[in-house]
Design brief:
This protein is 72% helix and 2% strand. The two termini are 33 Å apart. It is mostly helical.
Amino acid sequence: MKYRLLLLLAALIWGCAFVAQRVSTETMGPFAFNGLRFGLGALTLLPFVYRGRGKAVQLEEPPARLSLTLACLTLGFVLFAGSGLQQVGIIYTTAGKAGFITALYIVVVPLAGLLLHNPLRLAHILGCLVAVVGLYFLAVHEELQALNFGDLLELSGVIFWTMHILLISSLVRYYPGVWLAAGQFVACSAFNLIGLLLTGETLTWGSIVQTAWPLLYGGVFSCGVAYTLQMIGQAQVPPTEASLLLSFEMIFSALSGFLLLGEVMTGRELMGCLLMTGGIFMAQLPSRIIWQGVGYKN
C-alpha cells in the first residue's frame, strides 16, 4: 500500500504542475523552462545520491551493454521528448485538457505491453474505445471539427510517457531509483539546453526572475520529488497498475486549473472528461484474455 500511495502523491504533484507549466509559458520558452527545471530537479536529488553512494543494493544484474549512463541517457531523451511536447502543447490548450489527454497513457501502456509479451484483455479494448470517444468530445471542437495544435502535441506526447513508464519498470530492476531519476534529469536538462541553442530561444535573467515560482515548483516538486516517488513506487507496483494510479494527475490538473487559473470547461468537454475517466478505469478491470501477446508460447 505504501508504494501505491507514493504513486498517488506523485500524481497530485504532477496534476498541480500543469498550472505551473501553463503560467511559465507567458514568460519563458519551452526549452529554457524544461532545461532549468530538470536541472534544478537533478540538484535537488544530489544529497540523496551522495548519501546512498557506496551502499550495497540488492538488485538484478543488468545486461552486459546496459550501463547506468546508457540507462539515464535513454530515460532522459524520452523524458525530453515527452515533456517538450507537453510544454509546447500547453501554450495552445488549457492545463485541465492537457492533463486529461496526457493521461491516455494508461490505455496505451497495456497495449504497448503486448510487445513485452503481456496479455491483451477485453477490458483494454473496450476501455480504449470509450477513452477515444471521450477524447473526441474533450478536444475536438464542434466549430472546427479538428484537434487544435496544442491538443495534437499533448496527444503525441502520450507515446513518450508510455515509453517512460515501461522503461522505468524495466530499469528499476537493475539500478536504484534515485540514481536513475537524477541521471535522467541531467540528461533531459542537457538535451533541452542543446535545443535552446539550436533554435535560438532566448533566456535572460529577467525571464528567470519572472518564472521563479513555476521553476521552483516544476524543478523541486514535479521533478525532484514526484519523479523520484515514481521510481520508488514502480519498483514494487506493476506498470499497468502504476499507470492507473499516476493517471489521477488528470483529475488533479483539472481541479488545480479551475481553482488556480479559473479554467472552466464546456458541457461537451466535461462529457469528454467523464468518458475518458470511465474508459481509463475500465481498461484496468479484470476480464477475459483475448490475445496472449507477441511471442507467447504454450
